[in-house]
Specification:
The chain is mostly helical. It has twelve helices and no strands. The longest helix has 33 residues. It is elongated.
Amino acid sequence: MSSLSLAVRDSNTMLRRNLLHARRYPSLTLNLLLTPIVLLLLFVYVFGDVMSAGMGGGGGADRSAYIAYVVPGILMMTIGGTVVGTAVSVSNDMTEGIIARFRTMAIHRGSVLIGHVVGSVLQCIASVVLVGAVAVAIGFRSTDATALEWLAALGLLALVALALTWIAVGMGMISPNAEAASNNALPLVVLPLISSAFVPVEAMPGWFQPIAEYQPFTPAIETLRGLLLGTEIGYNGWLAVAWCLALSALGYTWSKSTFNRDPE
């Protein structure tokens, strides 16, 4: 077999391994998935009227409008939460000896990382679909989006999932245990909370606006919001793609160099 065929075969094997782990131990995935669903229900049914009234400039409360606003941010937050499980899974592999075992086997060296990354992206897409189904059930509608815009939105979600997964893999590889991996990946959950996910950047205090604006989640959320709701995207689309490519390159280089480092 050619080296490419071996790489594909071994990567497929590692992907099945990671998906089987996710199926046999669903508690971590379910716990991470519950967080965005709870936040969605909380902000819609508890804070929805107040938040929509505050954002409407005195036009009164409109919960349906706030559902449309908040769902894109919740979908991005779902990806950030899901990849925390990837960091924990990678950390477990690194600390429980299975990686040392893989190093002695005649398998493609990069297949271990590829299996984690592809498996994580698939889990992210599945989580986004489930959270999106809950959003539709409580009233979210995207009537203005064309088929091309829906396809672009799905592509953006997959690109964000790929970028954050590579960062999570790097975090998991440097963590001494699963608890440390979970803590190291916490910024991937916190950053969406301080982005434009719940309120516009313009509504934030002046000193806080740069924190919300100059981070990867805000342009990604604004781009997804524009694709699904027909609002203005502007330069956010290019910024979102640039952030994803930069984070993917950083995470890939970081993960590869750490994985190839000889164990002490």
